[in-house]
Structure formats: structure tokens, C-alpha cells
Amino acid sequence: MEPRNPDDLDGLRAASDVLGLDALLSDVERAVRDVVRGFADERIRPDIGDWFDRAVFPAELVPELGKLGLLGMTLEGYGCPGRSSVEYGLAALELEAGDSGIRTFVSVQGSLAMGSIHRWGSEEQKQEWLPGMARGEVIGCFGLTEPSAGSDPSSMKTFARRDGDDWILSGSKRWIGLASIAQMAVVWAQTEGGVRGFIVPTDSPGFGVTVLEPKGSMRASIQCELHFDDIRLPASALLAGARGLRGPFEALNEARYGIVWGSLGAARDSYEAALRHALRREQFGRPIAAFQLTQQKLVNMVLELQKGALLALNLGRAKDAGSLTPAQISLGKLNNVREAIAIAREARTILGGDGVLLENSPIRHAANLESVRTYEGTDEVHTLILGQHLTGISAFTDVRP
């Protein structure tokens, strides 16, 4: 048998699809995947090392993402694409194969900000915001996490009080993606009637943004801290359909679903970089791909990639059928991100010293995935969600005095 050609990426991908998973996709699904893959190859890969190094988010890509129909991808009406959950998952995978920061933008814009308005907003709010956001002309962010309220959003201190027909918003949020370039924020706050959501234009008097930097992860993205200094909002700013934590949690589940797929993209790109390097790099008179330990590493990566893809596709089919549960999403996010980090780290070892150069993707993916592992629910949170599902006992015990 002849050694694989490292320059034949299509051939390497076909050989790596040991289970023939590509055949489980429809022609439409493969077409969506191929379009987004081409976009990542042409518009992300050539510059992502430089963007990551300089900590630059490529805002010029936003209208292009809108033109491709990737913003609010599964939402219906109001100029939104209305594609299937599997199609969205495949798009998330290909974008994150480029970089987690780009896929994160699509998730924040589409699943969190647009999704909240689409699900809980009034007809007037949907008409005002969603078409421009779908085109990438308006950027949104999502304010839930606070400096002292991450895994426990019920302890948030941001508060909105009534003042006649208006609301007065005070408090702060932390680790809010895109906020410094956004025109609007979906902000969740305590009220006398429980947690409610508000649409807050970022040019509102009293709205402050601090970019969180420097970072060692997600450098081609933007994360911020928000400050609300008695912002006056009209009654029309309220997302009237959302009451309690169900509102933000349903948005988070949409984002978590995208991560199940997206993390596979970072893992696959890391594996492919390692495979191609192993076929090219010679030591002791032969390619390092010929050594047993290198082959063992590559095989272990493919095992987890194939299992992760089966898991993601099964969840996607369930989501399109309307039967996907939060516990299933937690299982997917916990497993695929955890395995993706392991793959990226192992891929780096195959590249040896060159693996620390940003011209090679595994070190960047490994760094990014540390953030992906933390946001939209840590490993611990998803473990306890699954533990409660298995035992019927909640371990989220209130231990505060």
C-alpha cells in the first residue's frame, strides 16, 4: 500500500471517515457544509494566525457571514435563513475549523441575541432588529454572566426597577462577547417580578464597555465587561415573553448545541494538521507517520472524531424532530469539547517544536477550546445536569448563608 499523499486533503478526509458518515448527510446538507468550508479556507485560514497574534476580530467578515445565511441560521421569517439544525451544526463545525472566535460570533449573534428576540420579543421588536442582524448590518450581544454570577445566574445583581412606564437598569455583566462593536445588547436583570430580559441599545446614556484583555485564548474574538449606570429604558425595551431564567437558559441551550458541532471543527483541523505533518516529516529515514506511536495517536484522534460526529448528528436529527432535551445537549457539549481539547493537544505533540508556531493550528485551537470548555456551562455544570438526569437528585444545593 502506498503512503497517503499529504497534499490530497480530500483523500485524507475520505480515509479518515472510517464509518462513512458523509453518506448520512443529504445533498443539501453537504452543499451547505461545502460552501462554509470554502469560506473558511478562503477568508479565515489565510489570516487567522495574524488575527490571533494581534488579538483582532475581523469585523469585515460579518456582512459576508450574513450574505451566506449564517446569522440566525435556524430562525424563520424576518429575513432569517430558516435552515435546519443539522445544516447549522455543519456550518458551525466548518467555521470553528477556521477558528473558535468566528464560530463564537455566529453563536452570539444568531443563537443568543437574535434567538432571544425571535423567541421572546414582540412583533415590533422582531421587525426592528432581526432583518438587520440577519444581514450582519447590526451586531448584538448577550448579557447574562456577571463578575460574581457565572455558573449561578440566579444570583445576578443587575437590577431593573420600574419608574412610571420606564425601567431603570443598573449593574454590570462580564465576559460578554462582541459588546464593544455591538449596536444592541440583550440584557437579563432581576426585577421585583423575577428575571426579565431587555433590549438595550449600546449608545444608551449610562452604557459602558470595558474590553477584557490581554487574553491567552479566543484572541481573534472580543469579550467585554458591561456597566449599566441607571440606564433609562422605555417599556418597549422589555422582552415581554420571557419570565424567569427559562428565557436565558433556552438561548444558552441553542448556543450549547452549536458548540457540540463547532468543537469538532477545531478537533478535525488539529488532526488534519498533525496527519499531514506526520506524512511529510522524516526522521530516521522514514516519515514519522510510519512509527507505531504516531499511528496510535492518529487512530485515537479519529476514534473520538468519528464518535463525536455521530453524537452531533444524532442530536441534530433529534433537534430537527423537536425531541432534543437539555440533558442530551449537556452530554454532547461535555463530551465533544473535552475530547476536542485532548485531540488538539495530542496533535501539537506530533508537530513537535513547530507545533508552537501560529502557522500551525493545533496550539491555537487548544488555547481557544479552553474558553469553549468554560462558556455556556463548565464541565462541572454539565456533569451535574447529567447527574440530576440520571439520579433524579439535584446537586445544585444552595449553600449560601
UniProtKB/TrEMBL annotation:
Q: Where is the Acyl-CoA dehydrogenase/oxidase N-terminal domain?
A: 27-137
**Which cofactors, if any, are listed as required?**
FAD
Taken from the record, one Pfam family name reads Acyl-CoA_dh_M
Q: Where is the Acyl-CoA oxidase/dehydrogenase middle domain?
A: 141-230
User: Which transformation does this protein catalyse, written as a reaction?
Assistant: glutaryl-CoA + oxidized [electron-transfer flavoprotein] + 2 H(+) = (2E)-butenoyl-CoA + reduced [electron-transfer flavoprotein] + CO2
Identify the pathway. Answer: Amino-acid metabolism; lysine degradation; Amino-acid metabolism; tryptophan metabolism
UniProt entry keywords in alphabetical sequence: FAD, Flavoprotein, Oxidoreductase, Transit peptide
Q: What class of enzyme is it?
A: oxidoreductase
Q: Which residues form the Acyl-CoA dehydrogenase/oxidase C-terminal domain?
A: 243-390
Check the record and name the InterPro entries matching this protein: Acyl-CoA_DH_CS (IPR006089), Acyl-CoA_Oxase/DH_mid-dom (IPR006091), Acyl-CoA_Oxase/DH_mid-dom_sf (IPR046373), AcylCo_DH-like_C (IPR036250), AcylCo_DH/oxidase_C (IPR009075), AcylCoA_DH/ox_N (IPR013786), AcylCoA_DH/ox_N_sf (IPR037069), AcylCoA_DH/oxidase_NM_dom_sf (IPR009100)
- Enzyme Commission number(s) of this protein: 1.3.8.6
Q: Which SUPFAM superfamilies match?
A: Acyl-CoA dehydrogenase C-terminal domain-like (SSF47203), Acyl-CoA dehydrogenase NM domain-like (SSF56645)
Q: Which family does it belong to?
A: Belongs to the acyl-CoA dehydrogenase family.
Query: Can you name this protein?
Result: glutaryl-CoA dehydrogenase (ETF)
Report the source organism.
Microbacterium pumilum
